[in-house]
Design a protein that fits this description.
Layout: H1 2-15, H2 20-32, E1 41-47, E2 50-57, H3 60-71, E3 78-85
Parallel strand pairs: 2-3
Antiparallel strand pairs: 1-2
Length: 89
């Protein structure tokens, strides 16, 4: 019984959803610290755990990596990568 009483707060904490604002902050921080994505002009929005990334990056590798990084953030349900390359017209 004591174990159940002690474990309940941890179980409840794990079930709480991560807020869209927290997801957005985390995604922005991770993208800004990645060498392939850093320095790009990005707009990150989150709604219901779905991350939308708009803007421009320098390389196709950076575009792909932005999706990979975002998907690893806790609470992310999906990523809509709308990034374009600076070289695109």
């Amino acid at each position: 019984m004591l174990l159940v009483t002690l474990a309940m707060p941890m179980l409840v904490a794990q079930q709480k959803a991560v807020s869209d604002d927290a997801i957005s902050d985390n995604v922005r921080q991770r993208l800004a610290s990645d060498a392939d994505v850093r320095g790009a002009a990005l707009d990150v929005t989150v709604k219901g755990g779905v991350v939308t990334i708009k803007g421009r990056v320098h390389t196709d590798k950076g575009r792909k990596k932005a999706t990979e990084i975002s998907k690893k953030v806790k609470g992310v349900v999906d990523v809509d990568n709308q990034l374009k390359l600076y070289s695109d017209k």
